[in-house]
Write a structure and sequence with these properties.
Length: 374
């Protein structure tokens, strides 16, 4: 058994200390909010929460941050109001449950939260109601649910030469290279919170679809282009967006995004770049310098790709995005306009018309070169 050097042991201790400090900070925040409830009771008042409004009118695009944020409007949720008592109690319980998870360093899925509430006689009509209360807690604390050890079911994966060091209890100090498994590694809580040690990669390629992710691994795109490959599984989960941000900020790696040639693919890239209105209460989920390299609407014409007709829903989505301030100029506006002119869309797999490796041998190299000028 190889013994760790003093330097390695000190590094593990330092990282463990940072994790403990973060845990302490979260617990103190929850305690502070709980103390306000006790103060209200001690003063003979009905307990209440002030929750930043997540209404459309209070969601604004911040050009400096390059993402949506919440404005200054807030709503009062009070136990005095009988119509708010149910949601107030749910939020109180969730804060208690989040405190328990954080203290015990236990993880829970969104589904677990829904079922766990029943053990405390807290009723949610369905999971969407409990999910919404979780967002309320995020808005109150300005912290993502992941900080409270609450995670969704994961569906993204990563592959490439990246050494990580786990920080979760029981695995502290254990290392892993993410090119060791040809199917890639699931982007879950342990990976999202791991220390990013070092990499030989020079770029991150985020791909919308799992089939192309597998193709990229088979074609050794990680070696050919010194890249880390991430399968976003469609709209990237927040854990994946967090990891993309860390790879950009901590490892100084540019991020490029490759999606299907449709309006939803364009929006998948934009969410990675500047977030979503639904997460306007959070600030740590965006990569403002990320580059969307295609498949563009103009690529459909340029490469004469096989297409399928846009649906009425696709067309409506185009018009909706044209009203979004993020799509008012540059490549984002241009490609929306072309999608509406063509009223056709194409998938990444359409390049197989020219051979199975055409997308990796010809299209990708051209796009990576083009990304340098975007």
């Amino acid at each position: 058994m190889k013994l760790k050097t003093n330097k390695e042991q000190n590094r593990i201790k330092e990282r463990s200390k940072k994790a403990d400090e973060k845990q302490k900070s979260i617990l103190e925040m929850l305690k502070s909010h709980g103390a306000k409830i006790y103060d209200d009771l001690d003063n003979g008042q009905f307990p209440k929460f002030s929750i930043p409004s997540r209404s459309v009118s209070n969601i604004v695009y911040d050009k400096k941050l390059r993402q949506y944020i919440l404005g200054n409007n807030a709503a009062l949720r009070s136990s005095r109001n009988s119509s708010q008592l149910r949601s107030f109690t749910q939020l109180m319980w969730l804060a208690f449950f989040a405190n328990r998870l954080t203290q015990e360093k236990k993880s829970s899925t969104l589904r677990d939260v829904y079922y766990s509430s029943q053990a405390f006689a807290i009723e949610f009509e369905d999971q969407s109601e409990s999910d919404n209360i979780i967002v309320d807690l995020e808005a109150v604390t300005s912290k993502p649910r992941e900080d409270f050890h609450i995670f969704p079911e994961e569906r993204s994966s990563i592959f490439g030469d990246l050494n990580i060091e786990y920080t979760i209890p029981g695995y502290e100090g254990k290392t892993m290279n993410l090119s060791n498994h040809p199917d890639g590694y699931s982007i879950g809580p342990s990976l999202t919170t791991a220390e990013l040690v070092d990499t030989s990669a020079e770029i991150v390629i985020a791909i919308e679809k799992g089939g192309l992710f597998t193709r990229f691994v088979e074609e050794q795109i990680d070696k050919k282009f010194k890249s880390i490959i991430i399968n976003t599984g469609g709209q990237a989960p927040r854990s994946t967006r967090t990891l993309l941000k860390r790879l950009h900020d901590e490892m100084k790696l540019p991020v490029i995004v490759l999606t299907d040639g449709d309006v939803y693919g364009e929006h998948i890239a934009m969410v990675i770049k500047s977030g979503s209105a639904n997460a306007a209460h959070l600030r740590e989920l965006t990569v403002p310098d990320a580059k969307w390299v295609g498949v563009w609407a103009t690529d459909i014409e340029k490469y004469k790709l096989p297409t399928i007709p846009m649906t009425e829903s696709d067309i409506k989505r185009c018009y909706d995005l044209q009203k979004d301030p993020r799509y008012q100029d540059g490549i984002w506006k241009k490609e929306l306009d072309v999608f509406l002119r063509l009223k056709r869309k194409a998938e990444l797999e359409a390049f197989s018309k020219y051979g199975l490796t055409n997308i990796t041998d010809k299209y990708l190299p051209q796009k990576l070169e083009l990304a340098k000028s975007l």
